[in-house]
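User: Is it possible to get a 3D structure for a protein together with its bound compound? The compound here is zinc ion. I've pasted both below.
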Amino acid sequence: MATDLTLGPADALIGVDVQQDFCPGGALAVRAGDQVVGPLNALAARCATVVATRDWHPADHCSFAAQGGPWPPHCVQQTPGAAYHPALRWPAATIHVVKAEAAERDCFDGFSGRPDLAAVLRQRGVERVLVGGLATDYCVLQTVLGALRAGFAVVALVDAMRAVEVQPGDGQRALAAMQAAGARLSRSSEIG
Ligand code: VGL
Ligand code: ZN
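Assistant: Yes, that's possible. Here is the predicted structure of the complex:
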């Protein structure tokens, strides 16, 4: 049911970009990024539908500094940095989505990746998505907004996400933007 925080068959968990390069020691490390793994594992074990997205760039991606972009090279396809954090326990039936595969375009929204996530979720009868992962102020924010645009109710799992914070406060501003767009902010411990 979309009106409370009790899990049902119409709920899906989306773990955004919990990849080595976004975790401590990675090429574009998010502070304490690995701390999202625990709450995501706990919910993944309880959700009928689980989605995991990955940032999945070619080596010459436009967002990398060598091409004039803002970021160091990260999440290059088929490299260890693009792998999921090793402590993640995605269920066998997890739906895996990749995004930002084309060199000439960046993409922060899991609903603009491959396969078409909105179509896959609708086909399964999903009405609400619970979203966590990395990073709060980039791909988590855009995936939350993408889900809302696609017509899903959204619970943003505040303890299961961490922010890059290129500018201090970006994480808090991202949470405010999610809420203003219609997402419900919740701690994963509140999910019944
Ligand atoms: C991301 C920066 C660059 C993210 C991806 O997953 O939030 N951030 N590429
Ligand atoms: Zn990226």
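The domain at 11-190 is CATH 3.40.50.850 (Rossmann fold). Residues 17, 55, 71, 134-135, 138-139 surround pyrazine-2-carboxylic acid (ligand 1) (CB under 6 Å).
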